[in-house]
Structure formats: C-alpha cells, structure tokens
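Before going further, learn to read the protein records used in this course. The integers have meaning only within a learned vocabulary of local backbone shapes. The record below shows the convention in full.
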Amino acid sequence: MTRRYDRDELLAALSAAGVPYVLHTHKPVFTVEEAACETDHLPGAHIKNLFLKDKAGALYLVTCLHERRVDLNKLAKGLGAAKGRLSFASEDVLWETLGVKPGSVTPLGLVNAGAGAIRFVLDNGVLEHDIVNPHPLQNDATLALSPADMTRVIESWGHTIEWLDLINFLRENDTL
C-alpha cells in the first residue's frame, strides 16, 4: 500500500470525484446488531462486509445486504478459493490492506488497497436500493450515497467488481 487515506481524506476524494454523500455520525459500532441500533432509521441498503482470505493467501472483500446469511464453505467453493476454504483475515492484514480496524470494514477501504490486491465481491441486492450505507473508514459514522456512485469510484481506484446474486449463488452451490 502506498498511501493510507483517513476519513477526511476519503471524504475529500469522494467530493473531488463528484460523489454526493451524506455523513451520519454515531457511536462506534462493531456488529450488524449494533449498527442496526444506530442506523436502521436511515433509508437504503444496510450492508455487512466480510474481509476474507483463502489458504493461498488471496484476499476477498465480500459486501452484502446485512440480512444475508453467508455460508463461507459454499462461498469458497463457488468462488474457487484455494483448497475450497475461506477464513477471516487477520487484523494486521486488514490494517495493512484496507487501512481500517475491525468493525470498520467497508468497500470504501478499497481506496487504500492496490489495484487487484483484493477480489471484491458485491451482492447485487445492494442495487435494489437507491442508497447504500457504508462506513467511511471508521465505525463511528455512516455515509449515505448511491450504489452507482460507490461502484463508480471504487472502479476509478482500479478495482474490479464481481457482482453476485448471493441468495441464488449460495443456493446453486449447495451441492459443491
């Protein structure tokens, strides 16, 4: 990683890219349940983010609607993860790669990752909403922005987005 953005720098980068957003501050949240208490009143897609690695050390960021149940074994096999296994990446790898701490994982952390360093998988259920609500690199705030703007800026940072119909994907990969 050559540069690590903080929240203010991320917000400046979003503004410079013409991405409109609304910043909502709240107490720090570390789980989907805690986030729901602080942000359920906000319209739009509420997401959870899984920062994973496979047995070969390849990194994955999976962003999905917060209510989705994700079976890591099915996901690993369906995505072709090394040895069919995914586990959560360490706190050190999270910090070094995305520049965030546990509880603050966000697709916007890709601003800190080198192009191609992480396989980014995005649940297409997010597109069913006009607004998506990721953390801005810290878990004491939530940004409201359009999914189209979020994906556009992530692609401008050099990342490829793998769209995934997570519900049907996991169902179809039941027998893998």
